[in-house]
Design a protein that fits this description.
The complex is a heterodimer of chains A (114) and B (117).
Chain A lengths: L3 E4 L2 E5 L4 E7 L4 E9 L5 E8 L4 E4 L2 E6 L4 E6 L8 E9 L8 E2 L3 E6 L1
Parallel strand pairs in A: 2-11
Antiparallel strand pairs in A: 1-3, 3-8, 4-5, 4-9, 6-7, 7-8, 9-10, 9-11
Chain B lengths: L3 E4 L2 E4 L5 E7 L4 E9 L5 E8 L5 E2 L8 E7 L2 E6 L8 E9 L7 E3 L3 E5 L1
Parallel strand pairs in B: 2-11
Antiparallel strand pairs in B: 1-3, 3-8, 4-5, 4-9, 5-6, 7-8, 9-10, 9-11
The chains are: A mainly beta (114), B mainly beta (117).
């Protein structure tokens, strides 16, 4: 059974810092991995999607990497801003449960202080 | 585009009552919708997958008689929590897949917070 873990569970940084969020998954048989952002009491917003054949994806100040063989992904946020404060979730699409299903990680709660 | 709404955004009910939550795709047709449950400070757990016009597929451990899912049209899916109890209190989120887009793209609703007294 696929399990997804995120470290750290919570992170507090001052504005302007670069930071890295970690995601690990137990089964490398995935179709792709996706990073989401969730604001308190809200739904999810997709940030980046990395196909299993890719190594990284970039969008603005965000960069996500994927090392499928070791079961790891990182989300790098450059020059953090207070508006980045949210919970960040990673999720994988396992091969054996259908391409549509997402298995979510435990999340990292990020607080960026002014 | 690709907006998913949920109604209500929050609901408080007495134990033993049934609660219906609606999930709508506002500007696209959703052949598949997903229902998730999220406990405080926990991740999302997939409860069931519903395809328009057919029965929902429930994940292991989810009681289908407890959580009734109906996907009667390409833009609407409903989740009914029957005979709700305090342990059913949670944040319920739906997502929808646009039939015209890649299966990778699931659009999430804003969630419904259910509190059972």
């Amino acid at each position: 059974k696929q399990e997804v873990t995120q470290i750290p569970a919570a992170l507090s940084v001052p504005e302007g810092e670069n930071l890295v969020l970690n995601c690990s998954f137990t089964d490398s048989a995935i179709y792709n991995l996706q990073w989401f952002r969730q604001d308190p009491g809200k739904g999810l917003t997709s940030l980046l999607l990395i196909q299993s054949s890719q190594r990284e994806q970039t969008s603005g100040r965000l960069n996500a990497s994927l090392d499928k063989s070791s079961g790891r992904s990182t989300l790098y946020i450059a020059a953090s801003q207070p508006g980045d404060s949210a919970t960040y979730l990673c999720a994988v699409r396992p091969w054996d449960t259908g391409f549509q299903k997402l298995v979510f990680g435990t999340g990292t709660r990020l607080l960026v202080s002014p | 585009g690709a907006v998913v709404s949920q109604h209500p955004s929050w609901v408080i009910c007495k134990s033993g009552t049934s609660v219906k939550i609606e999930c709508r795709s506002l500007d696209f047709q959703a052949t598949t919708m997903f229902w998730y449950r999220q406990f405080p400070k926990k991740s999302l757990m997939l409860m069931a997958t519903s395809n328009e016009g057919s029965k929902a597929t429930y994940e292991q451990g989810v009681e289908k008689d407890k959580f009734l899912i109906n996907h009667a049209s390409l833009t609407l899916s409903t989740l009914t929590v029957t005979s709700a109890h305090p342990e059913d209190s949670s944040f319920y989120i739906c997502s929808a897949r646009d039939r015209e887009r890649s299966y990778n793209e699931q659009f999430f609703g804003p969630g419904t917070r259910l509190t059972v007294l």
